[in-house]
Write a structure and sequence with these properties.
This protein is mainly beta. The protein is built from no helices and six strands. Strand 4 and strand 5 form a beta hairpin.
């Protein structure tokens, strides 16, 4: 579990995913400076797709209070869970 450093009271959970090709987040406020020119689609294991509305870095605070910057995170509108791709780390 990680925490967004700008909002101490708001806990943002990220899941480490071994099957995910890209880091993905559904909360626009998490991004440092969202590049909305990146438009694409993400395909899930059940063959459903969802639109990508941007890409940028996010900063997270780990349980040990270290701050990590994660690059190339896709903004996927209405994604219910934030995903960290093990392959991209």
């Amino acid at each position: 579990m990680v925490y967004h450093p700008k909002e101490v009271s708001k806990k943002i959970v990220w899941y480490l995913d071994t099957g995910c090709s890209n880091h993905m987040c559904g909360d626009k406020s998490t991004f440092l400076d969202l590049d909305e020119s990146c438009q694409d689609k993400v395909k899930f294991g059940d063959n459903s797709t969802i639109a990508v509305k941007g890409k940028e870095k996010v900063t997270i605070r780990a349980k040990d209070n270290s701050i990590q910057t994660i690059s190339n995170v896709l903004y996927v509108l209405d994604l219910k869970s934030n995903l960290l791709s093990l392959g991209q780390l």
